[in-house]
Amino acid sequence: MGDKRLQPPLLRAEPRIRVLHDDVTIDRYRWLCDRDNPDVLAYLAAENSYAEQATAHLTGLKAELIAEIEGRQLCEGTPPPFQVGPFEYFQRHEQDLSHPAWWRRPATGGSAELVFDPNAIPGAEIFYSLGVFEPSDDGRYVAFSFDLIGNEHYELRVRDMTDGREVWRGSGRARQVVWAADNHTLLFTRVRADRRQCDQIVRLDVEACRSEVVFEEANERLDLMVRRSDSGAWLFLDLHATLDESCCVQRGAAEVWCLPADEPGGKWRRIVGRKLGHEVFAEHWGESFLFRVDDAGPYWRLVRAPIDDPSPACWEEVIPHRAGVMLDEIHVLENHLVVLEREGLRPRLVSRNGSGRVEATIAPDEPSCSLTVGLSPDGHYSVARHPFRSSKLIYSVSSFGTPDTVVEHDLANDRSAVLYQARVAGYDPTQYIATVVMAEAEDGVQVPISLVARRDRTSPGPVLLNVYGCYGKPRWPSFFPWPSSMTQRLSLLDRGVAFGIAHVRGGGELGRPWHEAATRDRKRITHTDLIAAAEGLVEQGFATRDGIVIEGKSAGGGTVLGAALLRPDLFRAVLAEVPLSDIIDTEMDFTMPCALVETVEYGDPHVAHEYEFMRSYDPYYNLSADRPCPPTYVDAALYDGAVLYHQPARYVAQRRFCAADRDPELVFRVRTVGGHSGASHGAGIADQAAFRMAWALDQLRRPSG
């Protein structure tokens, strides 16, 4: 790693002994939690300096990679606008400005007017993330929220489009936002400063500039969501009891309340109670409520019930539970019911008419891909929309090889038309091939891996294997979003490195059973599935035994660090971005982000047998001098609101302490701009990606052993 005389930083240790369930652990670096301590900032700066010096020999390669990434710009064309009421809303990016601005024009035709320009917000030139962008039905008001730090605390504002004034500025911790049908009542979820989950629904009368809390949940393990039905006629309030995100767009709720959208001051009615003991997602269609429910099995079924009496006694089955066929989402048009199903990794959209007869089935010709219904402003809490009073369904497909493609399918005559396909400069899709590889886990279960490489790649060869495997959250191949990020990954593919996503248990790619198979005292299955995936790629001739780099972000960062501890001989190197690297300490401290609800995923260390299991794979407390780790890249963000900077910082400091040579193959970078997701725009995006890729390529080029 460059100059052998370089010495990694060595931090002073302040040992703290803890005894729990007769197990003794020593935490030497708890003091790193104080971000205002000058010694903490000095240490983080020293690690950044070491990272730059230790990779100085990669300067030319990093510059080359940056040029390639920046050269893969989108060609002409823009995604289609989405319509709300009488207006179409769209983005326009002016040259030399950091962010695209929001505009609108009448749906019947006419000139465009500016709605919201983030470039005018002080601080947005450094960092900016959109939370929501929600116009009222009549277009008079637009609610939008944004984060200028990266801690995911979104400031909510409301603009009156008649004169362009901001008529309300409020909560810095707003999440979901919906307009009532009266066009002046806004409802939004809010997280109080002393809580981690959404626990309040606020009703705002924009005309009177008066807000009040109308719903509050006292149980800190529950998370609130407010939304509006596809028909626009009903408001729904969901209370989520777990972090199961196997149906991540339409999460099931333990409790559902409803309210007519044209009576926002009325009384909420509970239509699904917690005593039911199942998870439900509710929708409205005609004279009925629809419920996607898991009462018959983990893959969900669909029932309907009268609006006046939606109790289980009145449920009529529309789609039965089918083992192995995941019922992910339901979408309603006036005369059509559309469900998003997955069988294995393959998605399909199935449309039914009012009598329940199947009228269209849409199945992308991809081995695995992302399929999204509707159009969205792409904010952190934005909801995709599609026209209700229409027979035309809009959906998007994206994969390793297919840049985002927006399709309009007329359900009345079963015909499709492509509205937009992203085109990337210099990209030739015929040069690459995507496939799905199956690997056998320890218990014989087949673990799928989505893989992409150049057609002319020589096999076996090096592989960058990405993983997540937590909270039931699926990770589908796509083109632009993480973890695919193909405008960056193409630089690896063109150098002979294949890229894959290991769909290990703990994730939700194969439904809730896939998630539940690796939770609490079974969580280590996530790590052993990743090990099996790597070994399977070697055995089947895709990867060389000394050529696999594993990569994970956030909870996935904890996955790769844990797997590397179990099998350090298997992995050439490890990329751990904003990793959850101190699992026991996180779950011990309920003031940490999401720690309380995450006990459902990892276990509760206060319970002896669960602690014992967590202790067996916790990345932080299993570091020792006699357990060498592969070369590792770790990063953190000083203002991260999800994985706090000191979590990976303590891991790095402990590794340096355990190694006699301070572990010079460990590189740690701390970002001072942006949060959990990194830079929001500009050169920082390409710089971060190029640094990681250059480091990984350097590790792969070195002689094995």
Walk me through the structure.
The protein is an alpha+beta fold. Among the domains are: 80-217, Methylamine Dehydrogenase, Chain H, CATH 2.130.10; 433-701, Alpha/Beta hydrolase fold, catalytic domain (Rossmann fold, 3-Layer(aba) Sandwich), CATH 3.40.50.1820. It has an eight-stranded mixed β-sheet with strand order 31-32-34-33-35-36-37-38, sandwiched between helices. A four-stranded antiparallel β-sheet has the order 3-4-5-6, with no helix packed on it. A four-stranded antiparallel β-sheet has the order 7-8-9-10, with no helix packed on it. Helix 2 crosses helix 11 (683-701). The radius of gyration is 25 Å and the shape is globular.
The value of Rg in angstroms is: 25 Å
Main sheet, how many strands, which sense, barrel? 8 strands, mixed
CATH homologous superfamily designation of the domain at 433-701: Alpha/Beta hydrolase fold, catalytic domain
In the CATH scheme, the class of the domain at 433-701 would be Alpha Beta
Total beta strands: 38
The helical percent reads: 10-25%
Decide which structural class fits the backbone.
Answer: alpha+beta
Gross morphology:
globular
What name is given to the CATH topology of the domain at 433-701?
Answer: Rossmann fold
Unreliable spans: none
Biggest sheet: strand arrangement: 31-32-34-33-35-36-37-38
Task: Give me a quick take on this structure.
Helix content is 18%, strand content 33%.
Helix and strand layout, with pairings?
Blueprint: E1 16-20, E2 23-27, H1 38-54, H2 59-71, E3 82-84, E4 87-92, E5 101-106, E6 113-116, E7 129-135, E8 141-147, E9 155-160, E10 165-169, E11 174-179, E12 185-190, E13 200-205, E14 210-216, E15 223-228, E16 234-240, E17 255-260, E18 269-272, E19 280-285, E20 288-293, E21 301-306, E22 316-319, E23 325-333, E24 336-343, E25 346-352, E26 358-362, E27 370-373, E28 392-398, E29 405-410, E30 415-421, E31 432-440, E32 446-454, E33 461-467, H3 486-493, E34 498-502, H4 512-516, H5 524-539, E35 543-553, H6 555-566, E36 573-577, H7 583-588, H8 595-602, H9 608-615, E37 632-637, H10 646-658, E38 666-671, H11 683-701
Parallel strand pairs: 33-34, 33-35, 35-36, 36-37, 37-38
Antiparallel strand pairs: 1-2, 3-4, 4-5, 5-6, 7-8, 8-9, 9-10, 11-12, 12-13, 13-14, 15-16, 16-17, 17-18, 19-20, 20-21, 21-22, 23-24, 24-25, 25-26, 27-28, 28-29, 29-30, 31-32, 32-34
Helix pairs in contact: 2-11, 3-11, 5-6
